[in-house]
Amino acid sequence: RHSGQPSLLGHFRTVPSSSEVYPCMFEKAACLGGNSTGNKLCREGYEAMLCSSCSTGYFFDSPSRTCRDCEATHVTPAMVVVSVVIVVVGCALIFMYDKVKAWSEKWLNMGKVRIVYTTCQILATVPSTVDVPFPEPARSLFSILDLSGLNPLDLFAGECVNEGLGSYDTRVIVSTLGVGGLCAVNWLVFGARRLMPATSEQRLQAFSSHNSIFLGLTYVFYPTLSLAQLKGYVCVEYDGGDEGMMRLLKADLSIDCDSDRYQSFFGLNVFFTIMTQLIPIMYLVILYRARHLLHPPSKRSEHSQLRDRQRREQGHELKPISFLFEHYDLGWWHFEVIESYRRVAFISLLALITDKTLAGFVGIFMSSMSTSFYREAAPYHLASNNVLATVANQQLSFTFLSATLLRTTGYGDDAVGGSTLLAVNVAIIPCSIVASWAENKKQAKAGEIKRKFYEKLKHAEAEDKKKFDIAWTGYTKHAADTGNANVVDRLEANLAALDVLVGGEVVTSLAHPESLASTIDGLMEVAMANNDMMHRIVREIVEAMNGWYQQGPVKKLERVQEKCDNDYMGDFLKVIDIV
After folding, report:
1. What is the reported pLDDT for 565?
2. pLDDT tens digits, residue range 59-86?
3. Using 50, 70 and 90 to split pLDDT, how confident is the model at 94?
């Protein structure tokens, strides 16, 4: 198109001397068309290149892909409710973490909650990734889902509070520093708690709580920060007429990529990006260092090994990092690292694809592959979580397919299409609730069986004590009748002397002295060298009491190593029953 010719409705021309006409970013909703150029082509509330930025007094509403008047709608009731919930939950996690966790474990399965939350985060980005507005009532649903990113500037339309927050570079800086500030506040509160008088157990509990909150913050904000930061590198060229080509930031076409302002932001954004992308690596390092406790070599059944790991989760080494692995199966102890990159691929990398139709097809492919992965690999230790994750990714496939069809053919751009999208994407919530209810019912049943078993065990112990008392009375009477009444006195005297020898302190942990062996192989050699002597002494005691003695084998090295790893946190000297 030559200069001087009018721009079509939904199209934009930069200056009169430019021969290029570009489709507007928000099409007819933003661009009027006509003989004008620049901002004169934009509807009220829009400005800058392609009418892609919101004017002062307006904010960008992501689900509807429009600029809206701050005076009318900059803080919606939904935003206020969500924000209040976030503040309340955050305070509860900091000051009542253990009570909140106990309540959630009783009434919710947090593995399912995380699956639903992750799915909502990905779904919220589909309209912008494929660059298509969904029809009502799905549009309202996705407006709510958009809050799952938990970006304060999006929750409260930051540009309506301060004009400077409408600029993309400022939003990235404020969002990144805001998340960093939340993490800092969490650790400052922990530092304050450390200054208060407390037992070692209470200090460990405080560290576990605050470390879990820190890991939770990185989990929630990692994908959205990645998206914001990565968009800060994508510049595109536009015809500036006589002034030549212009390089503008695609995420905010009001920012010139050749300006000093952008160059300053670029350097800072590189630092932010590096720090953010270290989050999954931090996960991997933390988990790798604890791998000997997460999945030690063992020939026991998977169920037994998982039960052992869940018992070790209460220890000082695993409890602070249980957020990263507690829902995953033994062999998938590192899965949170993979899941983090999967989320970033959906939320951040897909959004960087220039061809939005291609982005839709890639989204369909990725969600289909994720469906197959969760179905076949089953990374969660609960089967119901694997089923829910599979269903959630089928839901993603359907949503990406619907968005792609809307973009390419317009199919489904009506109330029926919007209602179908709404129904499919809301279905995961009752599915997760029903699955959680069934899981809790199953656990409650298992707990009741265990309770009844322990009741029987206590009854059996009481009966055994009665039988022992009867037997002891018979033995003492027999001793007196046979002229050996002093046997009981000698026994009590020997026990008193033993108490003096070992002291009155209750022994809670037994171990070989460190001088006995420096390695597990050395311990096995000592056991073999003393095996015959040990059996000879015990045999003499048993046979002197008219007993029959059968010698058992020495424990194998593999079993000793397994007990060392599973029961004694790697301390082989605590394995005292080798012979």
Report:
1. 77
2. 887 656 788 888 775 555 445 555 666 6
3. low
Tell me the pairing of strands 235-239 and 66-69: unpaired
Contact 51, 26 (CB under 8 A): yes
Q: What is the pLDDT of residues 314-364, one digit of tens each?
A: 778 888 999 999 999 999 999 999 999 999 999 989 988 989 999 999 999
* CA atoms of 36 and 22, how far apart (whole Å): 14
Q: Are 160 and 73 in contact (CB under 8 A)?
A: no
- Contact by Cβ (8 Å): 172, 229: yes
Summarised one tens digit per residue, pLDDT across range 438-465 is: 766 777 787 788 888 888 999 899 999 9
Return the HEC string of 397-408: HHHHHHHHHHHH
Q: Which two tokens stand for residue 150?
A: 């938990």
Amino acid at 351: A
Task: For residue 100, give the H/E element and its range.
Answer: helix 97-107
Q: Are 81 and 55 in contact (CB under 8 A)?
A: no
Q: Is 367:400 a contact under the CB 8 Å cutoff? A: yes
At position 316, the amino acid (one-letter code) is H
DSSP for 161-185, written as a single string: H-GGGGSHHHHHHHHHHHHHHHHHH
Which amino acid is present at 504? G
Q: Would you say how long the chain is, in residues? A: 579
Q: Which residue type is seen at 386?
A: N
pLDDT digits (tens, 9 = 90+) for 195-210: 888 887 788 888 988 9
- Average pLDDT, whole number, for the chain? 84
CA dist 98 and 100 (Å) reads 5
For every residue of 264-279, DSSP letters joined together read HHHHHHHHHHHHHHHH
Helix (H) or strand (E) holding 210: helix 200-231
Amino acid in position 229: Q
Pairing mode of beta strands 245-249, 235-239: antiparallel
Q: Which residues of 448-480 are buried (b: 16+ CB within 10 A; e: fewer)?
A: eeeeeeeeeeeeeeeeeeeeeeeeeeeeeeeee
CA atoms within 13 A on the CB side of 142: 28
Which among 383, 400, 320, 369 is positioned nearest to 112, based on CA atoms? 383
- Give me the sign of the Cα torsion angle 296, 301, 304, 306: positive
10 Å CB burial of residue 421 (0-12, 13-18, 19+) is buried
Instruction: Look at residue 93 and tell me whether its pLDDT is greater than 70.
Output: no
Q: What is the spatial distance between Cα 251 and Cα 502, in angstroms, rounded to a whole number?
A: 74
Residue type, 515: S
- Number of Cβ within 10 Å of residue 143's Cβ equals 19
Interatomic CA distance for residues 218 and 454, integer angstroms = 42
As to burial, measured by CB atoms within 10 angstroms (0-12 exposed, 13-18 middle, 19+ buried), residue 519 is exposed
Two tokens at 314? 């209460």
CA geometry: angle at 224 spanning 313 and 121, to 5°? 75
Q: pLDDT tens across 104-138, in order?
A: 555 567 888 899 889 988 998 898 889 888 888 88
70 closest CA partner among 84, 80, 60: 60
458-484 average pLDDT score: 89
Distance of CA 554 to the CA centre of its chain: 44
Please check the confidence at residue 435 and state whether its pLDDT lies above 80.
Answer: no
AA identity, residue 538: V
